[in-house]
Amino acid sequence: MKKKKNPIKKVREEVKKTISTFLPNYGNKKTFGQKASDILTKSMGSWIFIILFLSFLFLWIIFNTVWLVFGQAWDIKPFIMLNLTLSCLAAIQAPIILMSQNREAQKDRLKSKYDYQVNRKAEREIEKIQEQLNRIEKKLR
User: Rounded to an integer, what distance in angstroms lies between the CA atom of residue 128 and that of residue 140?
Assistant: First the structure.
């Protein structure tokens, strides 16, 4: 009696082959930069960060305005240093977030490729079952 290969095992092997073809480094440990970008993206995209940063901006403006009355403000209106700080933060923050999003997009493409392969395999199995049912139906007639 000939032993049939497990179809699930076959699909897993196909998926591993596909994964290694499209993303040869998938499953490897993340680099320091990748870990840092994920952590920063997660923290910068939270309400806690937004509230803390708005508080920082509000305090900066209030303290500068109050100290301006006493003639000791470090950043007089229109807050050039604050503007520079925000520009530098945006210039650093944007590429870090994009790196993390690109890695997530790679994972999503891989998952969709895997889903496609699973769907194709299921379609082939359903076609085989349909053929068997047709043969059974013909024999019953």
Answer: 19
Q: What is the pTM of this model?
A: 0.54
The Cα 71–Cα 53 span in angstroms is 26
Amino acid present at 98: L
Distances (CA, A) of 24 to 17, 39, 84, 106: 10, 24, 41, 12
Sign of the Cα torsion 34, 39, 41, 42 reads positive
Distance CA 131, CA 25 (A): 41
* Those residues with Cβ within 8 angstroms of residue 18's Cβ, 6 or more apart along the chain or in another chain: 113, 114, 117
Q: Which two tokens stand for residue 13?
A: 């092997």
Give the number of other Cβ atoms within 10 Å of residue 88's Cβ: 10
Burial of residue 78, with CB atoms counted within 10 A of its CB: 0-12 exposed, 13-18 middle, 19 or more buried:
exposed
pLDDT averages per 10-residue partition of the chain, 141 residues: 65 70 64 83 84 91 81 78 88 86 86 88 93 93 81
H/E stretch holding 107 reads helix 80-140
Domain boundaries, the chain: 31-140
